[in-house]
Amino acid sequence: MLEIEYREWLEARGAQALSARNTRVYAIKTIEKNLAALGSPYNDLNEAYKADGFAQLRERIKQIRNNAKNGGYEYRILMPESKNPLNRLVSWNSWLGQYGRFLSGDISQTDRIWDYVRHHYIAPARERGEKSVVMATDALNSEMNMSMSWTDICETLANSEFQELANVPAPLMDEAAKKITFILMEGEETVSQEPSNPTNLILYGPPGTGKTYNTAREAVALCDGTADYPLTPEGREELMDRYNELMAEKRISFVTFHQSYDYETFVEGLRPETDGDETLSTGFRLVPVPGIFREICALADQARTRKRPLQHTSEFDLKGRHFWKMAQGTIGSEDDVYEDAQANGYIALGWGGAIDWSAEKFSSFDAIKDEWLKQNPGNQTPSNWTQTYPFRSEMKVGDIVIVPYGNTAFRAIAEVTGDYYFVPSAEGYYAHRRRVRWLLTLNDPLPLDTIVEGKFTMRTLYSLPARRVNIAGLSRLINVNEEPEYKSIEPVKPEQFVLIIDEINRANISKVFGELITLLEPDKRLGMTNALTVTLPYSKKKDFGIPANLHIIGTMNTADRSIALLDTALRRRFNFREMAPEADLLGVVENINLRAVLTTINRRIEYLVDREHRIGHAFFMHCKTKFQIEEVMRNKVIPLLQEYFFDDWSRISTVLGDGFIQNESITPPPGIDGEKMLSWSVRPTFKENAFKQLEGHAQPISDQDSLMANGKE
Asked: 0.70 exceeded by the pTM?
């Protein structure tokens, strides 16, 4: 085949991802290599195309797919170890037709429309797990710079050849709305997902009103459907235990905004990364690294679109398993290695050359090293024995293999099901293999810290200590992906995810969310009617959206900034729930009426400043003794009042009285003609009646409001 020219042609026509080009090249190469087995009399694809435009070959691949649907094994001509060849055969037949259009040197308007609709509408919708995709013909004309009529577009897309290429049934036409709907759910079925109702909520109020605790309760309720824990110390402990479990599973994430927080930290940014592997090549490059928001979006979308098993599926037991990190080909340049391994149920090692290590005499490390150096005296790269030995001898059936995507993400998880074997026909190119069962394969990689603590190193294969593996997070991912019998049953709500943003008002919201601010709206989420997607600026990831099963809860301290000053775009997209001080939750401790004390302090603050600067009840909730109350006053309340009143101690005295603070007169230094001044300080020991002074002024609301009104008049 004309590989170089075909790659350039694909890239010029929109196949920007290297992996997409590699996949198609691998398919065409495999077809060409097996022309004789496919019944073709020609030596290469160029001859086959000149003869009949690939008509015989494409018909043969169609027959092979029909044979596979009926339980036959003819597909093994092209995919000898594939367990799910139907969709791959459709894609390969389509790519063969595309290669024919490349060879012809021309592409018709019909072909352009077919390619555009498949690559920009149908394929992305399939990747998102959607059951259908709607295309407006006006939008298509605009995007492709055409002016075709409704009738002509319908005729083009209703063509049976297009339906075969795209693997879709005849589309549904809505002439009044000028829209065409393609139904995508053909082949393997999944349990229908009940749409989520995304929550965008901000809890706001003064300091100490329990905002952080209530975000935990709200997050657990969103994830579990309920958070019915009693309002007791024991109930709080149970709630926080469940909250921490969900955090460990990565279904809840927590981040605190601050003044310098930005898009590059929150969504994605460029970070330097060193190149190389065991050969220790030098230099670095800037690579896009996802932030916490993109990471939790990926987790939520994976949960939203993945298959769901029947309820009787047994749980996958990870107890006593051994874990490995093992790369499958270099990302970008060897994607065919990973794709073929995934399709055919094996993992492959690229080190070890063309030597068959399966003989019993190679069961030891030294034996492998000696044989390698004997047969390859000019190649003393250690990986050829340090990587081969554990793969051949230490890895066992039942072990779990995690396939990385760079150093901070992963793209698949497999269970080893067979011993080492050698493939002579591979001629040393990833010829060392083991059979596996793929427990999880991902279109979009997930962050590594979902299942493994720390980063991966560049070595191809090594053992992972069990202490580094997040068993809870790993179990959640693989227990629903063991590929049992799938079928459509009652709608199942996908797992829910929550991102908690503490101090959401402290950052520049437009700077942090950027173009994603619109995607926060509930009806613009993935899976909703008006779903929107964008292309991310650094990774160039297309069709990025915010899943409907991701909820966002923010907290906002109104003492820092009034809700009225919050970013307008954010205010329109969030619901707000006030968390006000609740003095009624406080009782009497050692004859100190905390309810009355807090009520008095807050009324005076509201009169002098505003209600957003009141003191929260949470400061006093755990006080059991007078000493603890005094510590809260000294270390929490008085410092807050200093901040509120900009160290104007006379106003602090107005709020607290003279039982907590004191002053003394300071005379002018010699030689300075001036008035005496007051020097303020916190009393080393509070007055005996300090709290009684505050308790005595805790009047009913109506009386106090009346006093304030009279005072202001």
From this structure: no
Of 469, 409, 477, nearest to 439 by C-alpha is 477
608 in the same domain as 538 = no
The letter for the amino acid at 507 is: A
In a domain, 698, yes or no: no
pLDDT, tens only, 345-394:
899 999 999 999 999 999 999 999 999 999 999 898 999 999 999 999 99
C-beta contacts of 290-295 below 8 A and 24+ residues apart = 290/409, 290/447, 290/539, 291/264, 291/265, 291/266, 291/267, 292/253, 292/255, 292/266, 292/499, 293/266, 293/267, 293/499, 293/516, 294/267, 294/268, 294/536, 294/544, 295/253, 295/446, 295/447, 295/450
Per-residue model confidence as pLDDT tens digits over 183-238 = 875 444 333 444 568 889 999 999 999 998 899 999 999 998 888 888 788 888 99
CATH number of the domain that 202 lies in?
Answer: 3.40.50
Give residue 578's Cα distance to chain centre.
30
Q: Which of 523, 556, 576 is the last residue of a domain?
A: 576
**Contact by Cβ (8 Å): 664, 676:** no
Which range marks the domain in which residue 495 is found?
Answer: 198-264+491-576
Q: Check: CB of residue 12 under 8 Å from CB of residue 325.
A: no
Whether 378 and 343 map to the same domain: the answer is yes
Burial zone of 467 (CB within 10 Å; 0-12 exposed, 13-18 middle, 19+ buried): exposed
What total of structural domains would you count in the chain? Answer: 5
Residue 55 and residue 41 in one domain: yes
**Which residues are within 8 A (CB) of 533 and not within 5 positions of it... i.e. 6 or more apart?**
124, 519, 526, 542, 543, 544, 545
pLDDT in tens, 119-146: 788 877 776 767 788 888 888 888 887 8
Whole-angstrom distance between the N-terminal and C-terminal Cα of the chain? 92
Residue 77: φ, ψ to 5° = -60, -40
Task: Based on DSSP, count helices (H) and strands (E) in the chain, helices before strands.
Answer: 27, 20
